[in-house]
Amino acid sequence: MLIVADENIPLLEAFFGDIGEIRRVSGRTMSAEDVRDADVLLVRSVTRVDRALLEGSRVCFVGTATIGTDHVDLGWLEQKGIRFSAAPGCNANSVVDYVLAVLSLYAERCVLGDWTQLSVGIVGVGNVGGELAEKLYRLGFNVKLCDPPRAEREPDGDFAFVSLDEALACDVISLHTPLTREGRHVTYHMIGQRELAGLTSDQLLINSGRGEVVNNAELRDRLDEADAPLVALDVWEQEPGIDPELVKKVWLATPHIAGYSLEGKVQGTEMIYQAVSQLLGLPTRKQAGQFLPEPALSKVSFTSAAEEQAAICIALRACYDPRHDDARLRHAMKKTSEEERSVAFDRLRRDYPVRRECSSLKVQLKGTSKSLQDNFRAIGFKLKV
To answer: What are the tens digits of pLDDT across the range 285-322?
Structure first.
């Protein structure tokens, strides 16, 4: 059995080495010739999987080690009888860590001693948005949830969903919708001129979902106007050839890495390994936890003298500080040509340094308040009291 896989999917040998021969190729430039004799195809979001790629191949299974599927022509795969599996929720904790780190920086910028004074509108309440909402609720934030498809399906559910305009009235808006171009609830350019005009300099817009949900050209124009909001973008239109002028104008700019924790990546590999094993009738003996190394930073300690908000910020940024990725992306955008910038954008993702989730860090608390203990637990840190 031949398994053709994106070279950037981690632990391919560990999970698939005893299932078949593995051929690694570039996901961005993967061609029909690369996959013609493959039985199994494993990709990430940078590869468009459709008739043009697979027609005439012997591929019987496609797995994407990502939560999204908008890069896959699911209808064509179904028509051809090609099995498919994604990895929904694999990097939810990683993206939530990213958003919490951005929130902590924003609260600091606003000189807030208590970051829960910020109201947060979450647009898209799936695996990622739902996990973010749960943690923010536990931390004591005022959260408003917007998810029209769920609101229709669950009129009597546990959540009280609000309209998009109500979510956009919050201090912070975090976008986590899938990308849809058809149907009743299109998300393509969902945030455009009208929505951007309603945001003010007292608000922060975060997009770590899908780049095309925000009209990047209209956002660039809005950021030149008075009273423009602060914006943190991790996802962009036309990746990897993103707009360098927009990078200059946003508050935080990162190269589509919100979900790039080691835990998230490895869990994505594990989920498609499970799907392949099920297809072939093989036992699933391997788990992500077997392959996670000891983190570079394993423990931090706080005493009773620690101020609550400062302690949370220190621990969050010990795991992840988005300003490092921001600096790297801005430097990459100084390249002269669009081709050079595109290559640099992809290289930032390909060569991304190891980043661990908050759950990898043990926090030791000596004589601290129960409130601080509860907040660390809510975020997902391991506690030693």
So the answer is: 999 889 999 999 999 999 999 999 999 999 999 999 99
Candidates 256, 328, 349, 355; catalytic one: 256
Q: Which of 210, 341, 355, 356 is catalytic?
A: 210
256 is catalytic: yes
Pull the structure tokens for residue 368.
């601290």
Integer Cα distance of 133 and 68 in angstroms: 19
Alpha helices in the chain (DSSP H): 12-16, 32-35, 51-54, 74-80, 92-109, 127-139, 148-153, 164-167, 193-197, 216-222, 244-249, 262-280, 308-319, 322-332, 338-350, 370-379
Dig out the tokens for 306 from the structure. Answer: 């620690």
| Number of residues written out for the chain | 385
Torsion of CA 303, 307, 308, 310, to 10 degrees: -110
Q: How far apart are the C-alpha atoms of 180 and 213, rounded to whole Å?
A: 9
pTM listed for this prediction: 0.93
Q: Phi and psi dihedrals of 113, rounded to 5?
A: -75, -20
What is the average pLDDT value for the chain, to the nearest integer? 96
Cis-peptide into 240, omega within 30 deg:
yes
* pLDDT at residue 315 in the model: 97
Could you say which of 212, 239, 263, 270 is catalytic?
239
Please list the ranges in the chain whose pLDDT falls under 70.
none
CB contact set of 38 (below 8 Å; sequence gap of 6+): 2, 3, 4, 23, 57, 58, 59
128-150: pLDDT as tens digits: 999 999 999 999 999 999 999 99
As given in the structure block, the two tokens for residue 1 are: 């059995």
Smallest CA-to-CA distance from 247 within 213, 228, 227, 223 is with 223
Position 356 scores a pLDDT of: 97
Q: Write down the pLDDT at residue 368.
A: 77
